[in-house]
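Batch manifest, entry 17 of 40.
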Amino acid sequence: MVGSGVGIYWISAFGATEATLFSAEGLGLALRIDPLSITMYTMISIIAIMVVRFSRNYLDGEPRIKQFFSKLAFTLAFVQLLVISGNLATLFVAWVGTSIGLHQLLRFYPNRKKSGSCGSKEIFSCPIGRSIASDSFHPYLPRIQQWKPYAHI
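Output type: structure tokens
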């Protein structure tokens, strides 16, 4: 929620912004802060608070509760990065991180039958999606280096 407050202040004071934290030949970590991304970021934060509160009560007494919350925090961080990603490389990294985090959460109870079936379906479908997404970047790499998606703003 603090990030949402900072984002709202930033937009009201400076308008939409894109920050490139590092770049190597046009590919790097870029973040985009605009009204839509901050709205989505805030919505994810509110849902995350509800999930954490529910999970804390539901998993009370669970010996692996710290592992669950570390996996949940990992997943939520990549989901929020997905929303504020400023270029295709950052979007791809966030997509893969979200996929890995969700797989870890699906397989938290590996001895449960439903958990195993969901995790095994996901483990076969996600690499296919990741490979298709990564293959789709190759023809565009020369153009990605020069692309400024929000140059008109």
